[in-house]
DNA sequence: ACGTCCTATTGAACAAAGTTCAATTAGTGC
DNA sequence: GCACTAATTGAACTTTGTTCAATAGGACGT
């Protein structure tokens, strides 16, 4: 076949991303191949390289979308919760729910080896989640410690999710991710409050 | 060439693991190929399959060794520190130091997709680090909460390490991983103490 | 010394992967 | 209807994991 013009470049670009997401959902990152992606929307392999520099580029963009959706869910959750501790808990919950709803896309975020110099837009998108936690922590920590506490909480919640979702350690008994994260937040915020009180004296 | 008998199967097995580790250190998990591994100690590709079922098997065993070494370092660190909070801090430090010393091997631990049913020995080795934290937390949490607290701390420390080592978020200013982990431990343990005191009333 | 096994090791061969690009063919305009 | 153009193709190349018939070199008996 030759010229078809059934779709614009933008449409092909979008269809490729969606096809890729479907494959990742079903077969994981390891099951993603160039030929499968294009077969998913009725084109052949050469076409993929009209729209992406290479497979790495495609994966990077899929991950970018995943980050966007995660941020979107987290933003909505934060807006619906009252400020203070409930909002922190809502953010954590949103993160857990997202990872559970899209386990393969979430896993790909971490399995993919970023190129040496990740593009600007990717780092920007990855950082947006951080900003959400930062805002939510404002009323709970002294101004000069908010950034520090944000990194700590953010990393910690992520790490706990990882425990469950990689099945690297099997949580027995009542140790759900929810209860782990709840106790982390409880203890961390309680500790933050206590330590500031005693320092204030 | 034909029969050489320069090395026993055990020796070839060991040389392959070492060669693989060297490649991973230099070029990362993505740079690891069957032919490179055997070329590293002067054999050809077929030989690899005499000693490993496939590449996945090899990677699993390399990861097993990495886990062992991490556990070893952590055990030594825990033994050298007095019980209580200092021991927790020593464990965290050992984890951070290890990840910094062997960034590529550490990264491979997480980039590698475990097979559907990971072998028994792998899960056992992955769980040993957990036991160390569990013991160290004994004097700091009520018996029925130690396991819970262990999962929380373990996950949290891991998550914070991930922040730095994947360069997914750049830590600016004074936010070293050390200071983040220290504040996590401080706040978490302080919170644990406070909440238990008030519940005891 | 020599020939005969025997098996450890080889490396050619295959399938499947990413990537490229000359050829092709369906639109577009005259 | 014809020529032109560029969107799309898919064959071709490289590199990968994996297999296995062929081979070469050691061991052993005579």
Describe the protein in words.
Two copies of one chain form a homodimer. With 201 residues, chain A is mainly α. Chain A has two domains: 1-52, Orthogonal Bundle (Arc Repressor Mutant, subunit A); 55-200, Tetracycline Repressor, domain 2. In chain A, 73% of the residues lie in helices and 0% in strands. Chain A has nine helices and no strands. In chain A, helix 4 (55-80) crosses helix 6 (103-111). The model of chain A has no long low-confidence stretch (mean pLDDT 90). At the A-B interface, helix 6, helix 7, helix 8 and helix 9 of A face helix 6, helix 7, helix 8 and helix 9 of B. Chain B binds a DNA duplex (30 and 30 nucleotides) through residues 1-5, 9, 33-35, 43-50, 54-55.
The CATH H-level homologous superfamily of the largest domain in chain A: Tetracycline Repressor, domain 2
Largest sheet entry of chain A? none
Number of helical segments of chain A? 9
Strand content of chain A: under 5%
- Could you say how many structural domains of chain A there are in total? 2
For the record, give the distance between the C-alpha atoms at the N and C termini of chain A, rounded to a whole number: 79 Å
Structural class of chain A: mainly alpha
What is the level 1 CATH name of the largest domain in chain A?
A: Mainly Alpha
CATH topology of the largest domain in chain A: Tetracycline Repressor, domain 2
Low-confidence stretches of chain A: none
Shape of chain A: elongated
Proportion of residues in helical segments of chain A: over 70%
SSE arrangement of chain A, N to C: HHHHHHHHH
Biggest interface goes to: A-B, 51 and 51 residues
- C-alpha Rg of chain A (nearest Å): 20 Å
| Assembly of the depicted chains | homodimer
Strand count of chain A: 0
Mean pLDDT of chain A: 90
Going by CATH, the architecture of the largest domain in chain A would be Orthogonal Bundle
